[in-house]
Amino acid sequence: MSTTTQETHNGVNVTQLVETVGAIQNDPELATFRFRATNTWLGGGHSRTSIDGFWGAGQEDASRQEPFTLDGDEPPVLLGSNHAPNAVEAVLHALASCLSVGFVYNAAAKGIEVRSLDFELEGELDLHGFLGLSEDTRAGYQNITVTYRVDADASPEQIDELCGYVQRTSPVLDIIRNPVQVTVARA
């Protein structure tokens, strides 16, 4: 009877990570994923998003017992009730989460042990765009600043190289930096 040893770094099953990359290299169609979300307005600035199944790796995923729910609202200064972060704050969360996953997974693949990793993000937004007061001002963030602190068994050069790679391969950073075709239609 043979046993397969699972290599793990940073809580990431590196053996499975390598096998997943190999499977996608052998069958590129496995790389296509379709994520979905539904949102219901609850009143005022408050809404709730439900995230359940998705399609990926060639099939519908049914691994989630219950859908994830995320609330969104606005602070009182923006006429909300502070039930939850607002949508642009959720974008910062999505970016931080994506960078964190990318950093830790890629560090694990390189055998780099990460003891701690923290990101701080700040986005600057001018309400002139959101309120329709200026066609010259974009409605979204004008800039986002990300700083991170990492304690890992790697040289500063290795950390810089890893961070550069993570930036090039982060789906959320790519969504923010590059235009994405978005279609909005009434059902």
From TrEMBL:
Q: Cite a single Pfam family from the UniProt record.
A: OsmC
* Protein name from the UniProt record: OsmC family protein
Originating organism: Phytoactinopolyspora halotolerans
